[in-house]
């Protein structure tokens, strides 16, 4: 499959990455303020006005897409590259499942396509991922193989009445390129 395929695809076999439009803002705001996602995602439980939300949505963002099923424009998730530091070759990667359970597999597919997009578009050597200890379970299949723990802040994140550790994980370009060779062919449209 190779890098060339990763460089040209934002559309996968089952999902697509599409730019977030102002018409998405209210849907995204409602999802981000939900009881399930709100305290754990970007706003950490804050409830900004619609105008402030639109500004917050783009603060520090280099690239951000809605993950959609190819048959529907409704976002299943959001993927983002933010706080990119091109001098040092790092950035932060975030992914949110806006419909937990219903679209989870599709959101993971979108995240993989997005990682290929990021690493083929910018000369970044690694992407950081922030995860609290109560969220770590969702990364268990790739922890230590794709995601490498680089730091842990003890009792840093307050949620659900208690403090949780906050992990800083990293996805290295070289490691992603090896994974990409194995998984991306199954995610992209067939060319035959």
Explain this structure to me?
With about 190 residues, the chain is of the alpha+beta class. The chain has one domain (about 1-185): Aminopeptidase. Helix content is about 30%, strand content about 35%. The chain has five helices and seven strands; from the N terminus they run αβααβββαβββα. It has helices spanning about 1-10, 25-30, 50-60, 105-120, 175-185, and strands at about 15-20, 60-70, 75-85, 90-95, 125-130, 145-160, 160-170. The protein has a seven-stranded mixed beta sheet. Strand 3 (about 75-85) and strand 4 (about 90-95) form a beta hairpin. Helix 1 crosses helix 4. Mean pLDDT is about 85; it is low at about 1-10.
Structural class: alpha+beta
**Number of continuous helical runs:** 5
Number of domains: 1
Please give the share of residues in helix: 25-40%
Stretches with pLDDT under 50, minimum 5 residues: 1-8
Main sheet specs: 7 strands, mixed
Short synopsis of the structure:
The chain is of the alpha+beta class and 192 residues long. It has helices spanning 2-8, 25-32, 50-58, 104-121, 173-187, and strands spanning 15-19, 61-69, 75-85, 90-97, 126-132, 147-159, 162-172.
Itemize the secondary structure elements and their pairings:
Blueprint: H1 2-8, E1 15-19, H2 25-32, H3 50-58, E2 61-69, E3 75-85, E4 90-97, H4 104-121, E5 126-132, E6 147-159, E7 162-172, H5 173-187
Helix pairs in contact: 1-4, 4-5
List keywords for this structure.
single chain; 192 residues; alpha+beta; Aminopeptidase; 7-stranded mixed sheet; 30% helix; globular
